[in-house]
Amino acid sequence: MSSSLKLLAEIRQSSERRPFEVLKLSEPLLNKGSISQAGDDVWLVYEQVFIAAIDEGEIDVAKAVLEILHKRFGGSQRVKRLYGMINEAVGYPDEAKKLYDEMLEKDATNVLASKRLIALLKSQGQYSIAIQELVSYLDTHGNDFEAWLELAHLYLANHLYAQAAFCLEEVILQQPANHYFHLCYAEVNYTMGCLDIALKEYLRVVELSTDNVRGFYGIKLAADRILDITSHGAGKSRDSSHFKVENAPQKATLERLSQLATERLVAIYSGTNDATKKTVEAWLKL
Could you tell me the pTM of the whole model? Predict the structure, then answer.
């Protein structure tokens, strides 16, 4: 197997799209006909190239690949989904939706059709309907953390923070070692005013990602805000009326956390230019 095919396989296995890179790697394979070296994975490669072409707006490439897949698999459900995607790309959303609806009529559990329908609704700004479809989808596919994450994003777009937090909890249950999901959960809780939960999650972020700037900023913000509230009382401190603290660490612990976060942030920015470092240090003193 060529190095290009190996790289394409690695991209597929990582669940990344990286469309520009996929097209660059696949172009010589398509031109020389050496894509067949992929063996049993050749059809996965074609599908990968098709999706990359759609992402990059290379509609002619997508159509050429789709013709190859259609000749091999005819009107299979998977190929129908690709026809739906190309209809979306060229500006025929109604035709795409019709295809997805037909697929779901034949098989209500069709994951690919469900996800494309939800993506289409989202792209059209029909967030409430997209949320309903995602909730229905998750009733059957509760172990799909990506769907939970997408639902969280839709809730956040509609300022439904409590619902988004619930979705992120489901994501973390399935992906506990991913610092990004803990960071999202921390930031949603901070926005809702749940400072003790936010602080714990920010600490988890820097445990999993030791030089995470947003994580250390979050620790400092949450610790300082809790100190402010516990010192003056909720509603009396500046901008703190909507914040809630149920299980606050001791004052000495909060002060130490704030100090350590400040030290780590200064250390992270120590390699930058003087102006940036001074700006960071000035902000941390506020």
Answer: 0.75
